[in-house]
Amino acid sequence: MLILADTVSLKQDEENFMLFDNISGNIYKLNELSYEILSLCDGKNTDEDILLNITESFDATITEAEKDFEGLVRILLDKKYIYDNDNEKGGELYEKDL
Amino acid sequence: MDGYNDKKNINKDFYVQWHFIDSCNLRCVHCYQNDYNHKTLDLNILKDIFLKLDEAMAKWKMKCFVSLTGGEPFLKPEGLFYLMDMIESSDNFKNIAILTNGTLIDNTLIKKIKNYKKLAEVQVSLDGHDEESHDGVRGEGTFLKTINSIKMLKNSGIKTAVMFTLHKKNIGSASNMPRLAALLNIDALTVERMTAMSDIERDEFFIEASDLKNVYFDVYASAKTEFKNKNTKLSVSRPLWNLIDENAGGYCPAGLSSLCILHDGALLPCRRLYLPLGNILTDGLFKVWYNSDILWKLRKRNGENGCAGCSHADKCGGCKAISYYYNRDLNSKDPQCWI
Q1: For B284, which of A22, A26, A27 is closest by C-beta distance?
Q2: Which of B277, B282, B286 to mutate to test the interface with A (most CBs of A within 10 A)?
Q3: Exposed end of chain A (fewer CB within 10 Å): N or C?
Q4: Are B82 and B112 in contact (CB under 8 A)?
């Protein structure tokens, strides 16, 4: 299950949705959908839970939600901003098989 | 929060007040500092703090205006110059100010600080217009030493400012400060309210809003007369001055574009607002700046802010520290606001 790395943090401030890299200092402005997906990456929700949640919240089809979800997850796994806690071994992070 | 990494912030100023030393040779009656221990200055700590700051400014593409102070910065000039050397050589730092009580300055030190191109000004604390009023706050013999230092600084060509910390004990001196400032031919005079941080301090030092209004009007009027045809300016960029002059005043930058760092790396929104945010050495600046609930609260300019709806809000907003200690709410209305 996906979980946000402890080196990053999420923040919603009024209409702004942000992802902070607390090590490099990078700031990413997110759209609401991305913010919601990342908020659900808590190590407890399965991919299916997240997809179901966003299809309900954003009135999207499963196909649309999957596309957004997989695109975002790929980028964030690459940056090591999220990881799959099922695949974590010895501190190394393994890219989720998408 | 302003969106750092945004092009709109490139080359904008970020203000840091760095209390790099906690030791002081004076014991002023209104001082915010509790601990005066004469600890050894650890230059490695100073360097580590500098590197964290430098990194953040580079990332945000902002230019740091840093005020170096203490304690008393001239108590350990080796630390002061160590920092100034690093700051001078970094493109991420724009200017340096030194905030001092002015009792330890001599011509040798002045000659040395004059060499720094980034030195913007030396700000000297003067808490009374005469020996009796100033010494009553800062200790016997300090007025003459401080006045002498101001004269030496001015004679050397260094931009010299005076900070008058206003409270109940020196309220009678306030409107006389512009005359003294003009006589000394200083570059700028700041009259800024003391923050009473406890009930005891409130009883002893707090000035009621109606009295403050009179003082601010008197100081403003006096400065207008005394500074006519002079190069001396009254600094009116802080909250509440907008109520005197619609072109003056400024919104408190705490949490938006300013920060206070203590000698051990502890971070505060402002020296007068003792709400520790974290430590730059152990937490890093990014983590604190992006995640502190206190900073996010300070960034609220609408809705939850007690000044929302006030026509002066954009150039005032009150002092967050005074509001906090008076109302236990950072965003409540400034208790010294008279409108």
Answers
A1: A22
A2: B286
A3: C
A4: no
Q: At CA A16, angle to CA B278 and CA B319, rounded to 5? A: 50
Q: What pTM was computed for the model?
A: 0.93
User: Which residue, B255, B327, B244, is CA-closest to B291?
Assistant: B255
pLDDT tens digits along A29-39: 999 999 999 99
Cβ-based contacts of B1 with chain A (< 8 Å):
13
Q: Which of A11, A16, A29 sits opposite B290 (nearest CB)?
A: A11
Q: What is the pLDDT of residues B255-311, one digit of tens each?
A: 999 999 999 999 999 999 999 999 999 999 999 999 999 999 999 887 778 898 899
Asked if B60 is an interface residue toward chain A (Cβ–Cβ < 8 A), one would say yes
A60 Cα to chain B: minimum distance (Å): 29
**Residues B203-235: pLDDT tens digits?**
999 999 999 999 999 999 999 999 999 999 999
The H-assigned helical ranges of chain B are 43-60, 77-88, 107-113, 131-138, 142-156, 177-184, 199-205, 209-226, 285-291, 293-298, 320-327
ipTM of model: 0.88
B290 → closest Cβ in A9, A16, A29 = A9
Q: Are B53 and B285 in contact (CB under 8 A)?
A: yes
**Which residue stretches of A5-87 are H helix?**
32-39, 47-58, 62-78
CB spacing of A24 vs B56 below 8 angstroms: no
Rounded-to-integer distance, Cα B104 and Cα B30, Å: 20
